[in-house]
Amino acid sequence: MANSYSALGRWFEYLNDDCGYEQWSQYLIKTLEKLGAGRRGVDIGCGNGYFTRALIRAGYSVLGVDISPQMLDTAQRLSLKEGVGAEFLLGDITKLKLNGKMDFAVAVNDCLNYVPHGKLQTAFSHVAACLKKGGAFIFDVSSEYKLKNIIGNNMFAEVREDISYIWFNADKGDRVEMDLTVFERRADGSYVRSDEKHVQYAHTESDIVSALETAGFNVRVEGHLGKQKLERINFICTRN
Predict the structure, then answer these.
(1) How far is CA 132 from the centre of its chain?
(2) DSSP output for 19-85
(3) Which structural domains are found in the chain, ordered by start?
(4) β-strands 40-44, 61-66 pairing
(5) C or N: which end of the chain has fewer Cβ atoms within 10 Å?
(6) What would the pLDDT profile of 154-191 be if each residue is shown by its tens digit?
């Protein structure tokens, strides 16, 4: 969506501080090692850049790509703050073009849920075109179960000292439409309100595997961090 993360983009990593970033990043690193992936990669839908920075600290050369300028502004700031020499690029996975071929690509924390059903094949084809033969592609999606039974038709809210939000979700069958109102605290104690809309698509595992195979990937599927496939599904792929 054009205005998705226009407000939340500056706060995404901060608000997701309970998602297990450290364990998740170690899972990515170990999976790349098991696949024998090279050292040069791209983090698609990098958000505020946590996984980009973690991979760089582990010895990889990684380019962070995201569709949200606000996400990337914070990613750049955090990279400089932590002394990590990360490079970031504004880009859309369904139109992805890079200079040279990468050894691997990752797309973590629901990036592919933002891709409409009709553009899934296109997205995977663009990723494949950016990878060397044998290159690795690791990504996840929130499952149909999670979107329909946990997120859909529910309301969430959080109040923190510097930011608060209210999040309404509507299950539309093949997608969940999300309306968010965000209140950011100014230095003088007043708040500025922003509204944004998100749409996450409920992709079936079989549709994803089929689109990946058509795009030229070998595919293995497992649950989050290698565990149960309930709320989150991981796809571990290599390019033919």
Answers:
(1) 22
(2) S-HHHHHHHHHHHHHHHT--SEEEEET-TTSHHHHHHHHTT-EEEEEES-HHHHHHHHHHHHHTT--
(3) 8-143+203-239 (3.40.50.150), 146-200 (2.20.25.110)
(4) parallel
(5) C
(6) 999 999 999 999 999 999 999 999 999 999 999 999 99
Residue with tokens 């549709």: 207
CA distances 35 to 2, 39, 121, Å, are 35, 12, 23
Amino acid at 65: V
Would you mind telling me the total number of residues written for the chain in this entry?
240
**For residue 129, is pLDDT > 80?**
yes
Banded model confidence at residue 1, pLDDT cuts 50, 70, 90: very low
Q: What is the dihedral of CA 28, 31, 37, 39, to 10 degrees?
A: 30
Residue 85, both tokens: 């020499």
Question: Is the pTM value of this prediction over 0.90?
Answer: yes
